[in-house]
DNA sequence: CAGTGAGCGAGCTTCCGCTTGACTT
């Protein structure tokens, strides 16, 4: 019997199904060793030696792996092919070795026979067991069999890269958080990822505050061609785009009036009619990031919800792994999908060659495939699940996006009509300006991959606004070309109407979960497994608030942000993680020692730490005023403060006046149960919002959903 | 189901990344 060890229990189940009886497959369920969280667990004085311990919650898992390893002939450690996976592999090797070392202690005659690395043959050998490391990037029988043919030893350099990553994050988090407890408020936290996340939100808010709206004008002209006698199709609308060969920028009413009067006094000639064919390629298959963005935009789901639903689909065997930064697709899946497309839609929907997609992210680890249905032929089934309905919605979204990514482009006919002004003879003297106006539009000639979004029954679920290409903002006015009359070069047109429109520039948009994840991914900050938890953390810490789906910073968030950015600018630079990744790559390649990497970071960091600890004053957090006067001392203002148990009301004359009161976040509705109390918004210890009655504990009504 | 803030000082809070459950007030 051979033992294979993977990370995910679902993966273990899948593997044992198609590998047969010669194999036992066990899962680690993530990391099995880590730094204990109640202390720093890093010996800064002695080369940053980390104190990795077995994770308490995994003791049962570890025991199972150890027991199974005793019966095995070969142990293949098949944890994910990335940095974290290599560290888990190392830890698995250690706990297996421990088991056998224990035996050698008990029974003097059984000891480790050999522990060495050969080039091809692998391996650490204990008595009659061979332990080796294998990797595969897709869950197919082929991939696993290939992997088993190519065993290797655990890559120590890659493990060291993980150690460096882990130690760095621990040092940043566990050195800066206590500093915040001292200088700002108890219970706060800082970290390489979460602090940058808050920073993005704070800086966006400041951009919005600093934003000054500017007036501008867009001018449209309705024209008529005499060539087409057919009444309904002989008019069209063009937009002013250039004045004297320069981009038309009209900033106020005076200028707009001048242009309008010029345009009214002009004659119009067709300068050019350009027709061309435009191809629109399908979108790449989903990754965690793009899937979360799409589900947020289309269904309005939080990333946490999307990930939970995806987890259910994954466990049900309906989709591939959902925490991934990769767009790779197994060749087998591509082949089957191509067969499906040809059969279902016909050859014109099938490109000559399969389409491959590549991640643009430099920090991508690509341990898994893209998110795709495990079988394009399989019908959706997820009965008796709490996510029955949502599961279907998400599955169909994933299914379409994936099948589409292997289909041909959709083809459009694009028509662009350019019109120039000439001046009526009698006014040539007055009007010196030359105006260029344009209209362009596209009409679908061949639907290609868009057939999935137009005709297929699945469409009720995903009328997909994410699929709109961002072609609109090219400065020219788009129209449906079916509505464009057939005009020709040098033709004279009749002016019908000039339409000036006053507009104002809009402030930048606040982040949503989706746009935040997009930026984090672009910056290489955080990983697919941490996007949702990070967004959760910064809300639980009360650094940011989500209102109508948009994030804004709280006064605590702003205070902490300014303190950290002010004192530790380099750690929370947007480029810091990218720099760290570069260093980690060097460690992984054996070009640099991990201890050196950490030392180079820690030396100046520690100095700064001591400096700030000594010099920085305690930061005052601005309390929000309610506008009410204190009923006790009649002098102070009532403000909203945050204590250990959440928000409460107090007098701002504290400590002279000790008035306090409960803070009730009323939504303006009576309790549906007792009809006497008010419905208020409360938060669980974990930070989740729920609705309750203000008369609690007299009335015990509570609900996760907002009462109607 | 009272308590919260400032300060006193005991004992506590805290990171990121890998993986799932247990199941919320």
From TrEMBL:
One term under GO cellular component: chromosome
GO molecular function: DNA binding; DNA topoisomerase type I (single strand cut, ATP-independent) activity; zinc ion binding
Gene3D superfamilies with a match to the protein in the record: 3.40.50.140, Bacterial Topoisomerase I, domain 1, Topoisomerase I, domain 2, Topoisomerase I, domain 3, Topoisomerase I, domain 4
Record's catalysed reaction(s): ATP-independent breakage of single-stranded DNA, followed by passage and rejoining
UniProt record, GO biological process: DNA topological change
This protein's record includes keyword Transmembrane: no
PROSITE patterns linked: TOPO_IA_1 (PS00396), TOPO_IA_2 (PS52039), TOPRIM (PS50880)
Segments for region (Interaction with DNA): 189-194
Residue span, Topo IA-type catalytic domain: 155-610
InterPro entries per the UniProt record, alphabetical: Topo_IA (IPR000380), Topo_IA_2 (IPR003601), Topo_IA_AS (IPR023406), Topo_IA_cen (IPR013497), Topo_IA_cen_sub1 (IPR013824), Topo_IA_cen_sub2 (IPR013825), Topo_IA_cen_sub3 (IPR013826), Topo_IA_core_domain (IPR023405)
Sorted UniProt keywords: DNA-binding, Isomerase, Magnesium, Metal-binding, Topoisomerase, Zinc, Zinc-finger
Ranges of residues in domain Toprim: 1-117
Active-site residues from the entry: 321
Top EC group: isomerase
Site-annotated residues for Interaction with DNA: 31, 165-166, 169, 174, 181, 323, 541
Documented EC number(s): 5.6.2.1
SUPFAM superfamilies in the record: Prokaryotic type I DNA topoisomerase (SSF56712), Zinc beta-ribbon (SSF57783)
Subunit annotation: Monomer.
Functional summary from the UniProt entry: Releases the supercoiling and torsional tension of DNA, which is introduced during the DNA replication and transcription, by transiently cleaving and rejoining one strand of the DNA duplex. Introduces a single-strand break via transesterification at a target site in duplex DNA. The scissile phosphodiester is attacked by the catalytic tyrosine of the enzyme, resulting in the formation of a DNA-(5'-phosphotyrosyl)-enzyme intermediate and the expulsion of a 3'-OH DNA strand. The free DNA strand then undergoes passage around the unbroken strand, thus removing DNA supercoils.
HAMAP family: Topoisom_1_prok
Family membership noted in the UniProt record: Belongs to the type IA topoisomerase family.
Protein's UniProt name: DNA topoisomerase 1
């Amino acid at each position: 019997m051979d033992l294979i060890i993977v990370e995910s229990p679902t993966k273990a189940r899948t593997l044992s199904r198609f590998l047969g009886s010669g194999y036992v497959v066990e899962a680690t369920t993530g990391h099995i060793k880590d730094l204990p969280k109640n202390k720093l667990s890093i010996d800064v004085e002695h080369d940053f030696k980390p104190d990795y311990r077995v994770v308490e919650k995994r003791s049962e898992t570890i025991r199972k792996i150890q027991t199974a390893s005793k019966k095995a002939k070969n142990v293949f450690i098949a944890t994910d092919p990335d940095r974290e996976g290599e560290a888990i592999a190392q830890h698995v090797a250690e706990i297996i070795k421990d088991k056998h070392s224990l035996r050698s202690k008990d029974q003097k005659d059984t000891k480790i026979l050999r522990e060495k690395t050969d080039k091809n043959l692998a391996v650490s050998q204990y008595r009659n067991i061979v332990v080796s490391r294998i990797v595969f990037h897709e869950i197919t029988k082929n991939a696993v069999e290939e992997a088993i043919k190519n065993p290797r030893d655990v890559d120590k350099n890659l493990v060291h890269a993980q150690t460096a990553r882990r130690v760095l994050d621990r040092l940043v988090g566990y050195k800066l958080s206590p500093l915040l407890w001292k200088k700002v408020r108890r219970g706060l936290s800082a970290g390489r990822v979460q602090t940058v996340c808050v920073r993005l939100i704070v800086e966006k808010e400041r951009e919005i505050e600093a934003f000054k709206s500017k007036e501008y004008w867009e001018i449209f002209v309705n024209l008529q061609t005499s060539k087409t006698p057919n009444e309904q199709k002989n008019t069209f609308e063009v937009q002013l785009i250039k004045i004297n060969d320069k981009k038309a920028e009209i900033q106020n009413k005076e200028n707009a009036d001048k242009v309008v009067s010029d345009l009214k006094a002009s004659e119009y000639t067709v300068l050019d009619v350009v027709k061309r064919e435009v191809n629109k390629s399908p979108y790449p298959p989903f990754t965690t990031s793009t899937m979360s963005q799409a589900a947020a935009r289309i269904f309005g789901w939080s990333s946490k919800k999307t990930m939970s639903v995806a987890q259910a689909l994954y466990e049900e065997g309906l989709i591939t792994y959902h925490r991934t930064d990769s767009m790779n697709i197994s060749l087998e899946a591509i082949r089957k999908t191509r067969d499906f497309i040809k059969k279902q839609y016909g050859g014109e929907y099938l490109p000559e060659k399969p389409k491959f997609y590549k991640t643009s992210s430099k920090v991508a680890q690509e341990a898994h495939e893209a998110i795709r249905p495990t079988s394009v032929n399989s019908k959706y089934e997820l009965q008796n699940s709490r996510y029955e309905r949502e599961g279907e919605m998400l599955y169909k979204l994933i299914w379409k996006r994936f099948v589409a990514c292997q289909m041909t482009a959709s083809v459009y006919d694009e028509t662009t009509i350019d019109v120039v002004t000439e001046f009526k003879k009698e006014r040539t003297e007055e009007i010196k300006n030359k105006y260029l106006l344009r209209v362009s539009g596209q009409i679908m000639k061949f639907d290609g991959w868009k057939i999935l979004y137009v005709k297929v029954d699945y469409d009720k679920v995903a009328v997909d606004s994410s699929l709109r290409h961002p072609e609109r903002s090219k400065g020219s006015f788009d129209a449906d070309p079916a509505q464009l009359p057939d005009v020709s070069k040098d033709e004279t047109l009749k002016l019908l109407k000039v339409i000036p429109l006053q507009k104002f520039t809009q402030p930048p948009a606040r982040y949503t979960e989706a746009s935040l994840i997009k930026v984090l991914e672009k910056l290489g900050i955080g990983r697919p497994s941490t996007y949702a938890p990070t967004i959760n953390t910064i809300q639980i810490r009360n650094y940011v608030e989500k209102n109508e789906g948009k994030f804004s910073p709280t006064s605590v968030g702003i205070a902490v942000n300014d303190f950290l950015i002010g004192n530790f600018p380099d750690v929370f630079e947007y480029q810091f993680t990218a720099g760290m990744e570069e260093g980690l790559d060097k460690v992984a390649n054996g070009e640099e020692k991990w201890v050196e990497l950490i030392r180079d970071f820690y030396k100046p960091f520690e100095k700064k730490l001591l400096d700030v600890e000594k010099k920085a004053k305690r930061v005052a957090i601005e309390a929000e005023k309610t506008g009410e006067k204190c009923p006790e001392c009649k002098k102070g203002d009532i403000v909203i403060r945050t204590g250990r148990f959440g928000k409460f009301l107090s007098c701002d004359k504290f400590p002279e006046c000790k008035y306090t009161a409960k803070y009730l976040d009323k939504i303006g509705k009576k309790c549906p149960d007792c009809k006497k109390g008010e419905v208020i918004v409360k938060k669980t210890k974990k930070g989740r919002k729920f609705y309750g009655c203000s008369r609690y504990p007299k009335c015990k009504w509570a609900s996760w959903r907002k009462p109607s």
